[in-house]
Amino acid sequence: MAIKRALFNYVSVSRYSSTSLLKTGDKLKQTRIFSTQDLVDYSKVSFDANPLHLDPQYARDAGFSDILVPGMLVASFFPRIIATHFPGAVYASQTLNFRSPVYVKEEIVGEVEATNIRGSKDKYIAKFITRCYNNTGVVVLDGEAMAVLPTLCPAQP
């Protein structure tokens, strides 16, 4: 777990016991603090070199208090939350609404809430409301996601 925590810089929070099944209304959450190194790594992989994400002076000159975490990096929280609890899940779709800036070193809570679950042969199709909050409770990102789950029994992260 120490290696996983160091690699992903997050703490997982779940409301499940090992015997419960995912049902409508259930929420899965994780908390993360994005580091400057996360932004550099994301820039290398995505080829997104926007100076708002890498240059503190540029971000301040643009009216922000610090460099911004790329919205798509924040949104990557959602498939990770689902796959952590349901290994082998296939992320099928996501809508996103970017509501407020996310700053480096700011604690963010990612949450997915099951709104619809239906069986399909040996898999389950689940629809989720997705939200990220900053440490003051402001919604910084929201939307909806759909995933194909191999089971409704969540793994313990």
UniProtKB/TrEMBL annotation:
Originating organism: Helianthus annuus
Family matches, as CDD domains: R_hydratase
EC number, as in UniProt: 4.2.1.119
InterPro entries reported in the protein's UniProt record: HotDog_dom_sf (IPR029069), MaoC-like_dom (IPR002539), UPF0336/Enoyl-CoA_hydratase (IPR050965)
Pfam families, A to Z: MaoC_dehydratas
Origin superkingdom: Eukaryota
Keyword Lyase listed: yes
MaoC-like domain sequence ranges: 29-122
Gene Ontology terms describing biological process: fatty acid biosynthetic process; photorespiration; thylakoid membrane organization
Record-given protein name: Enoyl-CoA hydratase 2
GO cellular component: mitochondrion
GO molecular function, one term: 3-hydroxyacyl-CoA dehydratase activity
UniProt keyword list: Lyase
